[in-house]
Amino acid sequence: MTDLKLLIKNGESISVEFKKCRNTLNKDVYETVCAFLNRHGGDLLLGVSDAGEITGVDLGRVEQIKKDFVTAINNPQKINPPSYLSIGEMEFEGKMILHIFIPESSQVHRCKGRIFDRNEDGDFDITDHSQQVAELYHRKQTTYSENKIYPFVGLDDLRVDLIAKCRRLASVWREDHPWVHMDDLQLLKSAQIFQTDPENGESGVTLAGILLLGKDSVILSAVPHHRTDLILRKVNIDRYDDRDLVTTNLVESYERIIAFVQKHLADPFYLEGTNRISIRDAIFREVASNILIHREYRNAFPAKLIIEHGLVRTENSSNPHGFGILDPATFTPFPKNPVIAAFFREIHRADELGSGMRTMMKYGNIYGDEDPEMIEGDIFRINVKCPVFEGSQTAITESRLESRLESPLAARIFVFIKDVEMGKAQLAERLGHKTVSGELHKQIRRLLDLELIEMTIPEKPTSRLQKYRLTHMGIRLFESMHK
Question: What class, spelled out in words, does domain 393-482 have in CATH?
Answer without folding.
Answer: mainly alpha
